[in-house]
Design goal:
single chain, about 290 residues, mainly beta, OB fold (Dihydrolipoamide Acetyltransferase, E2P), 7-stranded antiparallel sheet, 4-stranded antiparallel sheet, 2 helices, globular, rRNA binding, ribosomal protein
Length: about 290
């Protein structure tokens, strides 16, 4: 995967970058499997009551949601990768795999998250048997994965489906095992206990260069469903605690949200959250990059 820059024919083109989609099987063809598509309704940042709970969202291009198999429960059945595709709903690439025909299942194709190095024609498998090898794309429980390997799409509850490390370039490192628990180092640097019965997929997720793409203009952000972000000091005092005043001001108080919650230095995690017992080491303060 690489990043492509165009000739600066306009101010937006000068600073903008796009992916060259070299890691996709058919780079210039968008042909998803129609049986694995469902409509995706836009919410515009509003809850079921119509109240805006997430600001600066709305609009954007139409998208169809691809049904991703996060559980990988068809055990000990070898599937063939048909193609690697672009997914507008996530930063990583997805892979269309095909299982042998089986009467128990209505459809023998599914989408999975594509790790780095997976290509059309490869074989992937999931399960606990010895036939499942620790190769990129294979899914197996944490108690069977060798220590030190990079994994993604990690479950938090056995059978619920992968919830951790699902974005482009992400992976967790399996550091150790203690009885029924596995210790994972997450991309943030946090070390967390996860049940060894939970499943994970081997490999690092594809499209790691996604973070280096520059949009180049505000319009591309609107295509993605993001509306302009307004500073608190530029608003009226009825709309934000830092608003109002004659001329431009620095806010007159510590930075906060529209409801008055401090935005710098405050902890947002609940003190008595049950899952806090599973965190062995908190993530280090400041920006952290996983070098694994």
């Amino acid at each position: 995967m690489g990043i492509k820059q165009y000739k600066p024919t306009s101010p937006g083109r000068r600073g903008g970058m796009v992916s060259d989609f070299a890691d996709c099987t058919f780079p210039r063809v968008n042909c998803p499997d129609k049986n694995l598509l469902v409509p995706r309704k836009k919410k515009g940042g509003r809850n079921f009551q119509g109240i805006i709970t997430s600001r600066f969202r709305g609009g954007g291009h139409k998208k169809m949601y691809r049904l991703i198999d996060f559980k990988r429960r068809r055990d000990n059945v070898e599937a063939t990768v048909l193609r690697i595709e672009y997914d507008p709903n996530r930063s990583a690439r997805i892979a269309l795999i095909e299982y042998p025909p089986d009467e128990r299942y209505e459809y023998h194709r599914s989408y999975i998250l594509a790790p780095e190095g997976l290509k059309a024609g490869d074989k992937v498998m999931s399960g606990e048997s010895d036939a499942v090898e620790p190769r990129p794309g294979n899914c197996m429980p944490l108690w069977k994965i060798p220590l030190g390997m990079a994994v993604h799409n990690v479950e938090l509850t056995p059978g619920r489906g992968g919830q951790l490390c699902r974005s482009a370039g992400c992976s967790a490192i399996l550091q150790a095992r203690e009885k029924d628990w596995a210790l994972l180092q997450l991309p943030s640097g946090e070390v967390r206990k996860v049940s060894a019965k939970c499943r994970a997929t081997i490999g690092v997720l594809s499209n790691a260069e996604h973070m280096n793409i520059a949009l180049g203009k505000a319009g591309r952000k609107r295509w993605m469903g993001r509306r302009p972000h307004n500073r608190g000091t530029s608003q009226n005092p009825i709309d934000h605690p830092m608003g109002g005043g004659e001329g431009r001001t620095s806010g007159g108080r510590h930075p906060c949200s529209p409801t008055g919650v401090l935005s710098k230095g405050g902890k947002t995690r609940r003190r008595r959250k049950p899952s806090s017992k599973a965190i062995i080491r908190r993530r280090p303060p400041g920006r952290f990059q996983n070098t694994a």
